[in-house]
Amino acid sequence: MGTRILCIEDEPEMIELIRLILKRAGYEVLGASSGPEGLALLQKERVDLILLDLMMPEMDGWEVYQRLKANERTRDIPVIIVTAKAQRIDRVLGLYIVGADDYIIKPFSPKALLQSVEQILQSRQQSDDGQNPPPLAS
After folding, report:
1. How much of the chain, in percent, has pLDDT values that exceed 70?
2. Tell me, what DSSP letter sits at residue 96?
3. Distance (Å, rounded) from C-alpha 62 to C-alpha 58?
4. Cα–Cα separations (whole angstroms), residue 122 to 3, 41, 48, 111, 117
5. Direct distance between the N- and C-terminal alpha carbons of the chain, in angstroms, rounded to an integer
6. Average pLDDT over the chain, rounded to whole?
7. CATH no., domain 4-126
């Protein structure tokens, strides 16, 4: 099975755009149009990466992220936030306080999305393979 990515996004057009960009690079993209739908899908499906929108009705991306990280089955899946929230404080919150793996601001270029996905997956693969050097002794 190839690399599977779940896009949790309330705009169907955005899911299709992301699917088109990533499918060309050989990724399989699953879509969920709400936080609850994405969380339910993750109980049945295995994915390698999650693309998560922040501004969604019913359950926003921050709550989805908290639930992902609180669940033993999903806590280790890397998450890239893909959002229109472009304020510096939002980016700082997402990357440094919450701990998302990356933060992409809409509108984004296909190249930027692909680079982020590939970087996160490559980094995850290296850590899973034990290729990261051990920390230096102090």
Report:
1. 84
2. I
3. 12
4. 11, 24, 11, 16, 8
5. 42
6. 88
7. 3.40.50.2300
